Amino acid sequence: MDSDEELFSAWRRGEGDKLEELVRRYEEPLFRFLHRRSGEAARAEDLFQETWMSVLKARDRYDASRSFKTWLYAIALNASRKAWRAKGPAASDPDLTRAASGDSPTRTLERRETAAAVRRILAALPEAQRDVFLLCEYEGLTYPEIAAVLGRPLGTVKSQMFYAVRRVKAGLEELWEDLR
Amino acid sequence: MTCADVRERSFDYFYDLLEAEERSSLEAHLRDCEACREALRVAAEQKKMLRDQAPVPRGLAERTIRRVSARPRFWRLAAAAALLVAAFLAPLLTLATDGIVWVEAGRRRTVAAGAEVGEGVIEYPDGSRATLWARGRGRVRQRRLELDAGEASLRVQPGREPFIVRTPAADVTVLGTEFEVRLTGEDMNRKSLAAGSGVLLTVAVVTGIVRVSNDRGEVLLRADETAAARPGEGPRRVTEADLERIARETRLAQDEAAALEAETVRLRRAGKAMLLELQQRPAIAAPKPTKKSPLGDLMKAQMSASIRVSVKTEVDKLDRRLHLSPEQRKIFEASYEKVFTGLFEALSSGNFDKLSSGRADPALDPNLLLQLTPEQREEWNKLQAEEAEQQAKAEQAAEKKAFESAAAALGLSDAQKASLEGDLTKVITDAKTAYAQLLLQVFSGKMSAESLEAERESIVQGAVDKVKERLTAEQSEAFRGHLRKEMQLGAIRFGAPSKGSDK
Fold first, then answer.
1. B-chain residues within 8 Å CB-CB of A100?
2. Chain A neighbors of B39, CB-CB under 8 A
3. Interchain CB distance below 8 Å, A176 and B10
4. What is the pLDDT of residues B158-170, one digit of tens each?
5. In contact, B96 and B82? CB cutoff 8 Å
6. CB neighbours of residue B500 within 10 Å
7. Is the ipTM beyond the 0.90 threshold?
8. What is the pTM of this model?
9. Which position has the higher pLDDT, B436 or B2?
């Protein structure tokens, strides 16, 4: 399989379908990231599309020697911050979307409730901590990569993660008790 | 590390936030403490809850791709722009695409560049015409006559490239005119002509200006002027007295000279079919033969009018569906203007490689969509999807049609049709695309009209090669002929609406 960077370079050389491959590759992780960050599916979808439009516009500024993923998430974060400034924080998610296929109705319900509760926990994090936590937990970025995406010193990233982990842990323990 | 420490720092352990010695101390504690191992397992379960996620909306990637790539829309716009450009350039296009016709004793036949011609009328695709009189012979190319012997009368249309009559004695470069060329000599044998011995060229101009030049000099001739040239001598203007002397020198009988004179007069007066007046075409006004695109300054005004029309058409269509406010309308108009201007510029500067790879960034400014209300946005998405679908359908129908017509021309069996449809359709589509790009290169002055024919042949050859193993020899030849025809049809459809009336 081609690396992200190879795909993106090929697209910049004019192979139109390569970008499609990238969009598909990031459909799930990037949408989830934006969903967790914004707390609202409809807004996350908008942001997802905005992110790729920005990628299109900024393609000539991409430095091919650097990680595409890092660059993509930096753009996504930017889009999401811009939207936040323009529209304020999202209302709590009204839709809770469709069920993942293959689950029993009970499990689906649980899953939705858990997902909503988790989103609340994450949404309660201070923004700086939330970004670090989401990038680490869901995007699997290493701390140096997170530092690169957010443009913060590595030490700051680690300390923000330290505090985020404490809050998330407390929230999950509480949720765990509720679900027992 | 105590049990409380372990439980407190379980997540730090998961997230690799422990120092090395803290980590080994925690792991050492776990080896000895069953309760802490259980607590860590529970913490891992709790952490798993983070992974319970609502599903990704269906079709998100597809919607995004449609929006980001915007290709169907782009191609529609590009096609519209290309048609407009082609309308400006139709006369040049016919120059580029059609063959030269030699009418000999009432028989019309298309001749290839470089073909030998003799007595008869040569019809050039740009409307120029050369009449070769008895004993006249030479070769033709686009906007070229290589006259080896005899006489020719020419009526030349202005064009992107100069029209040149090449003779062993001198070149006659036409600057828009009607004139006669006469080559005389003791020996009409080609070999001696090529060597230049005993050849005399006379050029008589009826209207317009021609330049007669060889390596010794040049003369500019206007209406009713005559010049003579020999190999190794610079061309010179000749008077009546000169003409007589020339006639003597070349042992041309006086009465023959008189006959020639009389014939010239007759031609001037009568031969409407043969000696039409030079026809200026203000619409294209004889673009100069420069490296620059023919869509030069001259076209700018027409282009900007076309852009205005295109923008209005597009925005009107949006308005009907989205009901734009006056402010929104303004913003959309500005954005579309940019898109169309970019397209036209790319077309006129010959950046087709950029265009065809979709890299010209014809997409609208993404911020534009932020100007819309959610309802408008939804309608916008619908409109885009509809257009993409229409475009796809139209393309499919066109491909199907192209295949059917090829299948009929080749006489494919049902079994062949079934197995070849996909590949043959692709080969035809690719060939046509490649040919369209060639035409655009000729438009933009990146390729000469002369080389077009060879390029077209190589496209045809490549296409035939791709499928010939699955066709009979006759079918392969039929395919070659079919493709050649398709390319001409394509060219005519592309931009020369007047061609049908040219009989």
1. 54-55
2. none
3. no
4. 766 778 888 887 8
5. no
6. 8
7. no
8. 0.38
9. B2
